[in-house]
């Protein structure tokens, strides 16, 4: 991740957590919701990396078979 994308991610998390706190009026509920959001984000990132790796392996395998 570049420095700018990390900063944007931090800013997005800050904005969302502030909005969740305003809606719930509970720091613990806000923290729990943010943890769930971060876990979902990590799971999606892991799934995307796995999918890209499998795609690259498939392309490499097809390239080897064509040679």
Question: Which runs of at least 5 residues are low in confidence (pLDDT < 50)?
Answer: none
Number of helices: 2
Instruction: Tell me the Rg in angstroms.
Output: 19 Å
Class based on secondary structure composition and strand pairing = mainly alpha
How many β-strand stretches? 0
Please provide a written account of the structure.
With 67 residues, the protein is mainly α. The protein is 93% helix and 0% strand. The chain is built from 2 helices and no strands. α1 (3-24) runs antiparallel to α2. It is elongated.
Describe this protein with a few key phrases.
single chain, 67 residues, mainly alpha, 2 helices, 93% helix, elongated
SSE map:
Layout: H1 3-24, H2 27-66
Quick overview:
The chain has 67 residues and is mostly helical.
